[in-house]
Amino acid sequence: MAAIELVIAATACAAVLGYLLAATRLRRRGDMWPRRRDVFFLAGGSALVCAVLIPLPGEPFTGHMTQHLITAMIAPLLLVLSRPLTLTLRVLPPGRARRALLTMAHSRPAAWLVFPPLAALLDIGVLWLLYRTPLYAATQHQPLVHAAVHAHVLIAGLLFTFAVCQLDPLRHRWNLAWRATTLLAAGAAHAILAKTLYATPPPATAVTTDDLHTAAQLMYYGGDLVEIALAATVAITWYTTTGRAHTRRRRQPAAAS
Questions:
Q1: What letters, b where the CB count within 10 A reaches 16 and e where it falls short, cover 31-50?
Q2: Total number of domains in the chain
Q3: In a 10 Å sphere around its CB, with 0-12 CB exposed, 13-18 middle and 19+ buried, how is residue 144 labelled?
Q4: Membrane-spanning regions, if any (predicted)?
Q5: What is the DSSP string of 16-54?
Q6: What is the average per-residue pLDDT within 215-221?
Q7: Is 1 a residue whose pLDDT tops 90?
Q8: Contacts for 91-100 with beta carbons within 8 Å, 24 or more apart?
Q9: Would the pLDDT of 38 be above 60?
Q10: Sign of CA dihedral 123, 129, 132, 138
């Protein structure tokens, strides 16, 4: 087992424990924090641990693709739905640490990192590089390359999901058009990549036809399901936000009269 996988598993366990302790502390002081967010974070962290520590079913490339779906798509969606940045800001007392986190979250570099097209390029673009160049073959024989790719897939998946959903507080929030269009384009690029894999394996690899077809179908249909969940999250968030804004506008004339 690669060291990067142990690091990811240990970090996920520590993050889950920290999240649950923070949520418990918030409730004990009388603040509201929905328990479904605890469930989301626990599920996301557990999915990461299972993906990197437990042997996955299927032939080698199918097992790799299952790990890819969990690490890059399913776990990031669950973690982002739990709103960890919001929880951290609410738990931290006023002081240097809270100010530093707010400064980082509201900085210009952070705003550009969550610019949806850039986040999609870092995520889907590198997947094309991984599977349509000899990079995937290199990960099988070079531990450092494997570690770098594994870490990037997880971080890029988190960044893309965060950029599209935008549930946590940011100074610059990209509008629905940017996020929805990026999600559609990224979904199309992911599906096309899966179709190319169905026809041709990654360069310099020896993958059986059955293994290749199963992995490509898993990537195609599994990616679609996660992207539908992302689209539903974006739609619900937009509906809720615009509904609240409409309610405030209706109340203002009544209060003035």
A1: eebeeebbebbbbbbebbbe
A2: 1
A3: exposed
A4: 6-26, 38-56, 68-89, 110-131, 143-164, 176-198, 218-241
A5: HHHHHHHHHHHHHTT----HHHHHHHHHHHHHHHHHHHS
A6: 96
A7: no
A8: 91/22, 91/25, 91/26
A9: yes
A10: negative
Residues sharing a CB contact under 8 Å with residue 18, sequence separation 6 or more, in sequence order: none
pLDDT tens-digit readout, 102-139: 888 888 888 888 899 999 999 999 999 999 999 999 99
* 257 part of a folded domain: no
On whether residue 173 sits in a domain, the answer given is yes
Question: Which tokens sit at 34?
Answer: 């929905």
DSSP H helical segments within 56-175, as ranges? 60-69, 75-81, 84-91, 96-105, 108-113, 116-120, 126-132, 135-139, 143-165
Which range of residues forms the domain containing residue 75?
3-92+100-246
210 part of a folded domain: yes
Q: Is the pLDDT of residue 198 over 90?
A: yes
Nearest to 127 by CA among 165, 157, 166, 159: 157
